[in-house]
Automatic annotation (TrEMBL):
Self-association state and partner proteins as the record states: Homodimer.
Organism: Atopostipes suicloacalis DSM 15692
Family in the record: Belongs to the HAM1 NTPase family.
Catalytic site positions: 71
Note describing how the cofactor binds: Binds 1 Mg(2+) ion per subunit.
One Gene Ontology term, aspect cellular component: cytosol
Functional note: Pyrophosphatase that catalyzes the hydrolysis of nucleoside triphosphates to their monophosphate derivatives, with a high preference for the non-canonical purine nucleotides XTP (xanthosine triphosphate), dITP (deoxyinosine triphosphate) and ITP. Seems to function as a house-cleaning enzyme that removes non-canonical purine nucleotides from the nucleotide pool, thus preventing their incorporation into DNA/RNA and avoiding chromosomal lesions.
Pfam families assigned: Ham1p_like
Binding site for substrate: 9-14, 72, 154-157, 177, 182-183
Example GO biological process: purine nucleoside triphosphate catabolic process
Name of the molecule in the record: dITP/XTP pyrophosphatase
Species classification: Bacteria, Bacillati, Bacillota, Bacilli, Lactobacillales
InterPro entries: dITP/XTP_pyrophosphatase, ITPase-like_fam, RdgB/HAM1
Binding site for Mg(2+): 71
Length: 198
């Protein structure tokens, strides 16, 4: 049996979060960096789960191995859950954090603090040959600030305020963030089901 798991990302930092988990099961972790031939996989789903599954299933089929994919984003209550699955390309251009943050602040311009509730969501899916996909998710509740705070993290982190820590995600160290993030919570869920699935 091929004891390799591919994390469907080019983000080495993200892959590190999973490496420790799979090391314990004797699996070698690779990323899309190791398979440049795969290229971009279109995400055309209407939910985080559909997008994650699309990615994982396409790669698993091509390489005939176990693949873990995630789809995550920010859901703002006052904006009916937007930017949601469009979080990375909210302002039009994929991955332009500054433009996405500017658009979010503009959309929330006249919204009072108590109505700026938001949720960071992460769906993980594990797909492998001849197995049912395993879905898990994690969430972190917070508020959207009126101006960015902190230089750590990426994406919407400087605007996302975590009340029980009294800091924005952008003010947290990597270690702090990796303990409480939506991805960390999804990974905890994954750990609970991993034994049986593998």
């Amino acid at each position: 049996m091929n004891k390799t798991i591919i994390i469907a990302t080019n983000n080495i930092g993200k892959a590190k979060e999973f490496k420790n988990l799979f090391d314990a099961y004797g699996y070698k972790v690779k990323t899309l960096h190791d398979f440049p031939e795969i290229g971009e996989i279109p995400e055309t789903g209407n939910t985080f789960a559909e997008n994650a599954l699309q990615k994982a299933a396409a790669i698993s089929e091509e390489l005939n191995t176990i693949v873990l994919a995630d789809d995550s984003g920010l859901e703002v209550e006052a904006l009916n859950g937007e930017p949601g699955i469009y979080s990375a390309r909210y302002a039009g251009e994929h991955g332009n954090d500054q433009k996405n943050n500017e658009k979010l602040l503009k959309e929330l311009e006249n919204i009072p603090k108590e109505e700026r509730k938001a949720n960071f969501h992460c769906t993980l899916v594990l797909v492998g040959p001849d197995r049912e996909p395993l879905f898990v998710e994690g969430n972190v509740e917070g508020f959207i600030l009126c101006a960015p705070k902190g230089d750590n993290g990426f994406g919407y982190d400087p605007l996302f305020y975590v009340p029980n820590l009294e800091k924005s995600m952008g003010e947290l160290s990597n270690d702090e963030k990796n303990k409480i993030s939506h991805r960390a919570k999804a990974i905890e869920q994954l750990e609970e089901h991993l034994d049986g699935w593998l």
